[in-house]
C-alpha cells in the first residue's frame, strides 16, 4: 500500500510541475461592473476594428475611433493587447467598447478590462456611457457573491446579481446626501 501511495504522490507531483507554467500564465480577473470598468479606465472609446498585426509581444489592432467617452484629446488609431492569456481576441470589421490604459502613447486592453462588442451593450448601458457612469465614479461598486455582504461606507452600491445582466443595466450614482444608490434611469435615487 505504501508503494502505491508513493507512486500516486510522485505522479501528482509530476503533473503539478507540468502545469505550473500554464497556471502561472493564467489570467485571473473577477467580473467587473461596466461602471467600475469605466471609472477605473484611463480611456474609454467606441471603435471599429479594421486590421490586425503582430508587433513584438503584442497584437496591434488598427481601429477607426467612433467616439471618445473618457480619456485624452487625441484620436486613437490602434489598440494593443498582450499575446499571452490576458490578451483579447477581436474580430475585424466589428465595433467594440474599449476600456483601457494609456502607456507610452499607446492604448492597451486586456481580458480583465471591459471590452464587449457594441451590439451586445444594452440601451441603458449605452446611455450610461455618455452621462451616468462618469457622475458615479466617486461611488464604489462592491461585488457580493453570497449574502450577507457588509458595506462599511454609504458611498458604495452592492452588486449582488453577478450572474445576470440586470445589475449591468444600472448605474451607481452619488445622491445629494453623499451616499450612493443604484439608478435605473427612471428617477434620481432617493435619500
Explain the overall architecture.
With 191 residues, this protein is of the alpha+beta class. It folds into 2 domains: 34-119, OB fold (Dihydrolipoamide Acetyltransferase, E2P) (Beta Barrel), CATH 2.40.50.120; 124-183, Tissue inhibitor of metalloproteinase-1. Chain B, domain 1 (Alpha-Beta Complex). Helices cover 23% and strands 31% of the residues. The chain contains 4 helices and 9 strands; from the N terminus they run ααβββββααββββ. The chain has helices at residues 2-25, 34-40, 123-130, 132-135; strands at residues 43-55, 58-70, 78-82, 95-103, 106-108, 140-143, 156-159, 171-174, 180-183. Strands 1-2-3-5-4 form a 5-stranded mixed barrel. A two-stranded parallel sheet has the order 6-7. A two-stranded antiparallel sheet has the order 8-9. The longest helix has 24 residues, at 2-25. The protein is globular. The termini are far apart.
Feature tags:
alpha+beta; 4 helices; Tissue inhibitor of metalloproteinase-1. Chain B, domain 1; 31% strand; 2 domains; OB fold (Dihydrolipoamide Acetyltransferase, E2P); 191 residues; five-stranded mixed beta barrel; single chain; two-stranded parallel sheet
For the record, the count of structural domains works out to 2
Name the beta content range. Answer: 25-35%
**CATH-assigned fold name of the largest domain:** OB fold (Dihydrolipoamide Acetyltransferase, E2P)
Mean pLDDT: 82
Low-pLDDT runs: 7-24
Please tell me what the overall shape is.
globular
Distance between the termini: 68 Å
So, CATH architecture of the largest domain? Beta Barrel
In the CATH scheme, the class of the largest domain would be Mainly Beta
Cα gyration radius (Å) = 21 Å
The secondary structure category is: alpha+beta
Number of strands: 9
Roughly how much helix do the residues carry, as a percent range?
Answer: 10-25%
* Largest sheet: number of strands, sense, barrel closure: 5 strands, mixed, barrel
User: In sequence order, what are the helices and strands, one letter per element?
Assistant: HHEEEEEHHEEEE
In what order do the strands lie side by side in the largest sheet?
1-2-3-5-4
